[in-house]
Amino acid sequence: MMTQIIKRNANKFLKDEYDDLVKNHLEWNIRILESGSKPHSIVNGKEVIMMSSNNYLNLSNHPRLIKGAIEAAKKYGAGSGSVRAIAGTLQIHTEVEKRLAKFKRTESALIYQTGFAANSGLIPQLVGEGDIVISDELNHGSIIDGVRLTKADRAIFKHRDMSDLERVLKDSDKKYRRILIITDGVFSMDGDIAPADKIVKLANEFGAMTYVDDAHGEGVIGEDGRGIGAHFHIEGKIDVEMGTFSKAFGVVGGLIAGSQDLVNFAYNKSRTWLLSGSHPPAISGAQLAAIDVLETEPEHVKRLWDNTKYFKKELNSLGFNTGNSETPITPVIIGDSGKAKELSNRLFDEGVFALPIVFPMVARDKARIRTMMNAGLTKKDLDFALDKFEKLGKQLSII
Amino acid sequence: MNKQIGFIVNPIAGMGGRVGLKGTDGVVKKAVTLGAKPVAPQKAEEMLREFCAISTSPCDLHWITCGGDMGDNELEAVGIKNKQIIYSPAENTTSADDTRSASKILLEYPIDLLVFCGGDGTTRDIFTIVDRKIPLLGIPAGVKMHSGVFGINTSATAKMLYEFINKRLTIGDAEIMDLDEELYRRGEWKVRLFGVARGIVEPTYIQVGKACFESVSDDEVKDEIAEHINDEMEKYPDWLFLFCAGGTIDYVAKKLNIRHTLLGIDAIYQRQLVGKDVNEEQILMLLEKYPKTKILISPIGAQGFILGRGNLQLSPPVINKIGIDNIIVVATPSKLMHTPILRVDTGDKKLDHLFATQGYLMVVIGYRLSRVVKLQTNSF
């Protein structure tokens, strides 16, 4: 038999690069939840108070959502059989879209497979060569990827700085065909809110299109959690309100809400929408139920905010710095990265699951623990968590 | 392996400043007669003290240095023992020759970073010898510190050294500036780019996942800028492009296979060099032939000047003819961190006013990516 000459080791880089990540402590240590995402979760075998999930309203555990999922599966089956455009649009998909538009008080709405699919599928279609995308410097990675896929130019404005945005608009006005302003609605690191009303006003002056990624605002801010449009009372004025069913809605999936023109354009042009299979019916059933719950049970949003206000107030009175947060994302700013990691580890040992956010995600001296509130936590739970924060904060000389 | 740090102090740096000589080049004796006292050894010691205070294990470093006040005394004073002396000055009073001789010997050692104490003159002396072979970090002690290798003060230098050792800062370009001291003493400020050294820079980060970032090397950022300029040249095929001085632009030119004059201005038309190291007169002649022209410019030196300092060829008549809308400013994000304000001083009030009314400039910081940066003019 002839000996085969191996030209190259095709798979060697897989291990090499992973080892390199491990060496630099950059690999993801995946934590396993044995309990489902609950206010009290079992994480890696330990019961903890969950302050790291996006399940803000605890809807993932709501009986009506679970029932909705089961019934839709029973009626329509486990899978959808195709992509939306060919043979995978079930009646329940269109029902969700109709209900969603009503909830968002927009003319129309469209469901995407995920939020990432919405951003990376739609943004590259909205702009092209000769256009410019103007983006807040702290925008989320999926927006950045969406922008990278376009042939459009890109410009950055300082975080929430309207005069900086205006300067970029003035400069772009004379040079470009279309101008698209993109911002997160709620910024996921600091929990602050984009001044969408002012952005819309500036955009109108310059004939620019507005696109707000409201992933962390959907189900959280605005009347009954209707999102950023409702928060600023500018429903239907933001050209593209993008959001997600994966966070406060407690299910999974991305969405856009806006005009019928937008929706017609979006589903005909977004490659992510056209080329991935549609949601299984169980997902749609749960999505429908989530909208139902938000419309008929205002107590969840209220409890989320009551919890948020209480937790923030108590953290502040203990002497912690919680930054500029205006939402249920409450950063506890520690400063030093090592200390933030240490605090997070010790909190976990004591039964509180809150992840550290360190440099380079935030400035070198702004390392923090990011807590995300959950409507399912009781006052007793919050007091338990606060007690641990106080004890460990003192031990580590943070307060 | 432990890091090896080269360490050179120029003991006479900064002596001219105290007695109003605006520099010590060639006037040491005069400075001494005027009563000047050495300042650099003390600055070097200050930096070392601050470094030892923030570093958990300063002794892990191996210092390669020179005898007496050129390094050994300062290290000794703060109790750093892990050192090796590779050069000793012959006389008590040292000169630029000593700095150069010591640098030459240092080149034979595997050094990760050369920390030195002095001013622009010292930087040039060292850079002339080590070129881009060893990255430089300066402790500011001279009269003028326009070069990009310096920390803004001794404690900033100490922090940069600490962050570099802990791999949080990385190696990138740092411009070495040259100011004509003779002219400066007569009140004229004429700075030009002397060369581009390797220095310590803040890395650029891109988000690669949720709450997950990756640092991008300076060269990768410059690759993006080069790609952007490549697109611009395709978009404007019948335009002339003037490539100005500076490390970033030199990198861009290399990527585009253009043989560029690092320290001067070159004219490029349809990717061919049509003018090398051109002066004002030659540029004006080119503009007759190519009325549609864009200038590719990068802020140089620590002050962030884009016009009026390093590139006097870009005179007011030249700029007026080209139009300020046709100026493309490029800079890496790490560079902008150190120069958050761009400056213009064309010497022409009317032109400066035009820049002043604009107040801001769009700066290209990556592929098709730009951001606004504040612009200041001297007269307004």
Q: Can you offer a commentary on this structure?
A:
The complex is a heterodimer of chains A (about 400) and B (about 375). Chain A contains 14 helices and 13 strands. Chain A is an alpha/beta fold and about 400 residues long. The N and C termini of chain A lie far apart (about 75 Å). The mean pLDDT of chain A is about 95. With about 375 residues, chain B is an alpha/beta fold. Chain B contains 14 helices and 18 strands. Chain B has helices spanning about 15-20, 30-35, 40-55, 70-75, 95-105, 120-130, 155-165, 180-185, 220-235, 245-255, 280-290, 315-320, 335-340, 350-360; strands at about 5-10, 60-65, 85, 115-120, 135-140, 170-180, 190-200, 205-210, 210-215, 240-245, 265-270, 270-275, 295, 305, 325-330, 340-345, 360-365, 370-375. In chain B, the strands form 4 sheets. Chain B has a 9-stranded mixed beta sheet with strand order 12-11-10-13-15-17-18-16-14, sandwiched between helices. The longest helix of chain B is centred in the middle third of the chain and has 18 residues, at about 220-235. The chains are: A alpha/beta (about 400), B alpha/beta (about 375). Strand 5 of chain A pairs parallel with strand 18 of chain B.
